[in-house]
Every structure is written in C-alpha cells, then in structure tokens.
Design a protein that fits this description.
The complex is a heterodimer of chains A (170) and B (587). Chain A has 170 residues and is an alpha+beta fold. Chain A has helices at residues 22-32, 62-74, 104-116, 137-147, and strands at residues 8-17, 39-46, 51-60, 78-83, 90-101, 120-124, 128-135, 152-157, 161-164. Chain A folds into 2 domains: 2-83, Alpha-Beta Plaits (2-Layer Sandwich); 90-163, 2-Layer Sandwich (Alpha-Beta Plaits), CATH 3.30.70.1150. Chain A is elongated and about 55 Å long. The relative contact order of chain A is 0.19. The chains are: A alpha+beta (170), B alpha/beta (587). The A-B interface holds A 17, 20-21, 24-25, 28, 32, 63, 66-67, 70-71, 73-79 and B 121-122, 125-126, 129-130, 133, 150, 155, 183-185, 308-310, 312-314, 317. Bound molecules: thiamine diphosphate and magnesium ion. The site of magnesium ion has 8 residues of chain B, from α18.
Chain lengths: 170, 587
Amino acid sequence: MTEDTEIFRHTISVLVDNEFGVLARVVGLFSGRGYNIESLTVARVDETENLSRITIVTTGTAMVIEQIKAQLGRLVPVHKIADLTIDGPSVEREMALVKVVSKGEKRVEALRMADIFRARAVDTTEDSFVFEVTGVPDKVKAFIGLMEPLGKAEVCRTGVVAVHRGTDVI
Amino acid sequence: MANQEMTGAEIVIKALKDQGVEVIFGYPGGAVLPLYDEIFKQNSIRHILVRQEGGAVHAAEGYARSTGKPGVVLVTSGPGATNAVTGLADALMDSIPVICLTGQVATHMIGNDAFQEADTVGITRPVTKHNYLVKDANDLARTVHEAFYVATNGRPGPIVIDLPKDVQLASGKYLPPSMVKHKSYKPQVKGDLKAIKAAVKLISNAKRPIFYTGGGVINSGPKASKLLTQLVRLTGHPITNTLMGLGAYPASDKQFLGMLGMHGTYEANNAMHDCDVMVCIGARFDDRITGRLDAFSPKSKKIHIDIDPSSINKNIQVDIPIVGDVAHVLEDMIKVWKSEVHKPEAGATKKWWAQIQEWRAKDCLKFEQKGKAIKPQYALQRLNELTKGMDRYFTTEVGQHQMWAAQYLQFEEPNRWMTSGGLGTMGYGLPAAMGVQIAHPDALVVDVAGEASTMMNIQELSTILQYRLPVKVFILNNEYMGMVRQWQELLHGGRYSESYMESLPDFVKLAEAFGSTGLRCTDPDKVDDCIKEMIAIKGPVVVDMIVDKAENVFPMVPSGAAHNEMLLGGEADGAGPKVTSDGLSLV
Ligand SMILES: Cc1ncc(C[n+]2csc(CCOP(=O)(O)OP(=O)(O)O)c2C)c(N)n1
Ligand SMILES: [Mg+2]
C-alpha cells in the first residue's frame, strides 16, 4: 500500500458546547462528507463551562484524517480537537454489557471466562447473566467472541472513551 | 436602556440596527408577522420585498459581494425557509456573509407538524456556516450579534437564525454588540512568520513562478487586493485568477494571464502546469481548476494561503501552508520581501516569460464575428468596451454566457463581479443584480444572462419595477441551455436531450409587462447601438440579444483530462484531448 491509500484508525476527542444540535452537526459532517465513524461517545464533562466531550474513532487515509480534524475545527461550537492517536500515548477504554442465556456446563464456563476477563456479573437469574466488561476495544471484542458459543443473547457497547496519558490534557 | 424589557421582535430589529444593517430582503408570512410589525414602525432599515424567497437570498449575496457587508434576509417559516435553501447553499459554497432570519412556529408547537412548520435548523445545517434556533427572548440579542460575528469572521458564510413566533412576542432584555463575545470561534488571522519567510524565499528563487488567486482575496477586503497587486508587481511574476477571484488583480495589467481552469486561458493553464513555484492565495484547488488530480502541476512547490485550515491539503498536498487572513499575510510577505537581502537574480524568469509569451501568442480567446449571426463573444466584448470607465457592476447567471463573461469582461477592481461559482446556481444573476443596485443606486448594473437561467427567477422583474431599480438584463439568447448542449455535443454524441428551450417568451413583451424596456438585437452591425441604448435608458432594461446557437466555450479542459490538455475549438474531428470513461462520470 502506498502512503496515500493506507487506512489508519484514529481516536479523536472533541470538546464542544453542550448545546442543542451539536451532535447532529458532528454526525452530519461525517455523513455529509463520507467519513467513517467506528464509534462515537458523548457526554457533558464540564458543568460550569457547559462543555461536552465527544470521542470519535474513525478510519481513513492520512489526508482524510487531516481533513476530518480540519472540518471539525470549522464547526462553530467546537472548542478543542485532539488526535489521541498521534499526540502520544493515551488510554482507551470501552465498556460492554453482555447478556448470556444458558444452563449447566455452559453457564459455568461463561462465569469462568468472565473471571479471566475481569468481567463482573451485574445481573443474574437461573438462566442468564449480564456481564459488565471494560477494556480496550480488542479485549471487549474478544470477550464477546468467547461468549458466542456460551449463549450470548444481547450485546450493548458504549464505544471508546480516551484520554492522554501523563500530565497532558486537551 | 440595556436593562429595559423589550419584545423579541423589537430586540431583533434593534440588534440589526446596532449591527449597521440598512437593508433587509424579505417576504412576509404568518410566522414573522411580529417582526414585520416592527419593521413597519421604524424607518432606518429599508425592507425590499422580493417575489420569491430564493430571490431574497441571492439579492443579499449581491449586496454583500458588492459592498463587503453582510446581506440580511427575512423569510417566514416552512415554505419561506425551504425556498431560501438554494441561496444559502450558494452563499456557503462561495463564502458570502448572509444573515437569514426565518420565522418558526411557536416553541410549544415545534415537532407537532404544525401549519407551515419545517425543521429549518435541520434542513439548513449542511448549507450554512452555522445556525441557531432561539427559544428564549433573552437570548435573541446575543444570538444576532454572534451571528454577525460568525458570518463575517474567518471564512465568511451564511447563518440562519430560526425565530419561533412566541419568542418574537415574548419580552426579554437587550444586549448591545459590545457586550457579546464569542466563546469558541476565534479564527487565526495572522500567518506564521516562519512559514511566510520560507514562502518569500521560495518565491524569490523561483524560475517559473505563478500566482494563483481566488475569491478569498476579495473576501478579505479591498486592502487585500491592493496588497496582492503590490506584491505581484514587486516580484514581476505572472498571475492568474479563479472565476471567483476576478477583479482582485487588474485585468489590463501585463502580468495578468486571465482566468484559469476548465474554461481558463491557454497561457494560464499551461503556466499552472509547468510552473516550479505556485502561490495559491485564497483559492481552494477546486476540481474546475485542477482537472485530473494526478496530473496537476507535477513539478511545482506549492504555497497555500487560506483562512480556512480545512482548505489546505484537501485536494492537493502543498509544501508551505499558511493559515491566516489574506490581507494580514500579504502585508507580512511584502515586508519580508522588501527586507530580504538576497533579491532574485535579474532575468531569472526571462525564459519563463518568453515561454508565456509563446502561449499567449496562441490567442486562445480569438473569435471571428462573421456571417449574419451575432457571436456571443462579440456581444460581450462590445459590452466591455462600451461600458469601460463607467461605475459598472456585472452579475451573471450560469452557463456558457457566464464563462464568456468571465473571459471577455475585464475587471480592474474587486467587488464588481458577482457570479455563482461553487454551486453554479441558474437564477442567481437577476436577483443578485437587484441587491447590487440597491447598494449602488447610481451605478450601471448588468446581469449577463442566458435565456434559460433568466426564466428561473424572472418574477424578480416585479421587484425591480417596484423599487425603480435600473438593472440591465443582458440576455445572450441562444435558445438552448447552451452549456448543457455543449456537453451533449462533446460527450453524448450530439443527442440534445431536453436542452432546447421550447416556447420561450417574447422577452421584449415580457419586459414591457413588467414595466421594463425591452430591446432586441439580431444584427451584428446593431450590437453597439443596442448596448448604447441600453446604457442610455434610465430605468430597467431587458436586452434580448439573439446569438449564434451553435457556439461553444473554448478553451475547455474536458472532464478527466489534465489541466494543460485543452480543446481550443476548431480542432479536426477526433483531434485534441479525449473524454475518458472516468471523465464521463465527472460533472
Ligand atoms: C438551478 C440549476 N439547474 C440546472 C443547472 C444545470 N445547467 C448548467 S448550465 C445550464 C444551461 C443554462 O442555459 P442558459 O441560461 O440559456 O445559458 P447558456 O449556457 O445558454 O449561455 C443548465 C441547465 C444549473 N446550473 N442550475
Ligand atoms: Mg441559452
């Protein structure tokens, strides 16, 4: 693959005014310009300034990733943009709730696996568990994969949240 | 005063006044009646009643581009707002500051499919720089002031403020502009000095340089055009302008190579292709300019000055990006140029200029006025000659006539040329001319038009009558959607599917029906008389100039070709660059 066709995955954090329609602007920008969204999370993080933080995982060529950041910068309610993938080391986490419906051996096996992955059972009945698993997206994915043959019935993932390591802030 | 309660509608009108607004282009309806009531009660802001909301936005664009001030629009909810959408998209593409106030149903009705409700902020989000829905009368003043700030700072653009009717009637507090500061939007105006120095060095060492400048120079203000002219003359290098950038550099100057791009001159496109240093200022490497991307100016180092960081490295990778306002950056560049110790060697660009003269000698815009039919190029050349030195402004519609206007009219100053570049909106020129004429009541304002485009906003002749606007509509009537016909000739085997204009009105009678004067010209020998008569008439005129139906616009870079592969017209059958199958899918 050449330099201009290789596809990269980037995690981008955006600090925005927590106001009406701001998420629609960001999502509309991605759909309107044909950019990918692998995951997106948003919640208010600053009560006094009334700011929300959006974390977007996206993929594209180096030129497209540059464009995505520049285009985000054009949105009027955007305060800051950070590319956690190039800024240096960062911590990424995702959480999933995984419902497993099974009995007997499979149930025991599911619980054993959950233990290895440090997933917690947050709800349980005689026939089911709901596991809460947290980690990097690959770990979450691996856990969900392992639950597949053990009675996986439903999955809900939060999408990635991320911050810089060390003293850096966005 | 600041703490006194006012109605929402009063606040909006006061805020507009405090922003220096003199004219609003609008059309009333149920959801904006309180605002119209306020307009009725005052005299400092003039309201121009258009005949369709689309016309209001184009008029505001014409006003804005010819004055440098933002244009203001007021329309009702639902259909009023949706009619404005094309104009907003046009203003976004061409970076024109427009404030569009839209009425909205009362806040408690929003989302109920109320009468004349539309999700205006939803619909206009992708066609505006920013938009607002104001739900509290206390937010009105801040929002209006913010809207003006956002519309006119950074890369300019249109803003929608959606105003529910109950908010217009509610009471709230007013805030003057001085008390409103934007929280997040702070575009960079000063360029990075290190990059500027590197750029100047590159320019002064160039052997085959070219300045390629666009609408951003005009948007930066008249000072930017002056500085550009100064810098280009200091360097002695050639310059070409985009369609949007015409007028930023005097067209009559010997360093000017004319417009570049799909219908640009032979010398401009060749110089762009063969240059070793390209200085792009306030332009955006649009597909009309670059042609096939992988063949675009392969040997050059590129400098790009733009206030919008997203314009940089979007289509073309550049070597020295400079984010900042054109006027600020040019000022610094001139300072650096003047203080530089190593000046360019004398005669360094001599070979380059000799090459350019060779390209120029092709005389790519030459045409022959022979036979009984009027050549559209001739009509425009005469229009240019006969209006030279006058206080003149040109707008255009979209099509062949627009390209010929760009090629044959000469612009010595900025803000005198308004055309729909990015969106290519037929129907732009007539309402835009209205807006220009409102701003410059004594000037000669000509809409260079095609007959098909003219029909798209013909209702505005009624507005022109009402306000006694002496706008001249100069129709190059080829009885075809000429540009469509040209593409069908070149790309679709001459099958002229639906591009013939059947059942055209008699434009002379039509003009008379709207209280304008109608003039028709069919004879090449009468073109001058017709133009002189048009100029002499004090009121509005519609000229029906019957031109050669078969004429095509050249030079032309066919879709998918490299930007130095041009059809010049008159090639033998099958000669010249071909349209590739990839090119066929391009617009
Ligand atoms: C609103 C709109 N619809 C369709 C087009 C596509 N289009 C581009 S040029 C053109 C023909 C314009 O015809 P006319 O105004 O007569 O100008 P001419 O090319 O003949 O000079 C058309 C249909 C457009 N640009 N805008
Ligand atoms: Mg026509």
